[in-house]
Amino acid sequence: MKYRLMDLLACPICKKFPLELKVFTESEIQPPKKINRCELYCAYHNIEVSSNVSTE
């Protein structure tokens, strides 16, 4: 699963956001040339994204 998916997922029962991500294994891949910024929550850095931060 990719970290950026955590920006979209919420619990279907209680609507809790963000969900807690538990990583068991990681594999390195080549990063894309352009990185899409998270909208609300960055699971990779485990922080909420501020609404006043530039996305470019």
In short:
The protein is mostly loops. The chain is 0% helix and 7% strand.
- The total beta strand count reads 2
- Helix and strand content put the structural class at little secondary structure
Low-confidence stretches: none
| Tally of individual domains | 1
Rg value = 13 Å
**H and E order:** EE
| Major β-sheet annotation | 2 strands, antiparallel
In percent terms, what proportion of residues is strand? 5-15%
Q: For the largest sheet, list the strands in their spatial order.
A: 1-2
Description of the molecule:
The chain has no helices and 2 strands. The protein has 56 residues and is largely without helices or strands. It has one domain. A two-stranded antiparallel ribbon has the order 1-2.
Q: Could you list some keywords that capture this structure?
A:
56 residues, little secondary structure, 2 strands, globular
List the helices and strands and how they pair.
Blueprint (H helix, E strand, L loop, with lengths): L40 E2 L4 E2 L8
Antiparallel strand pairs: 1-2
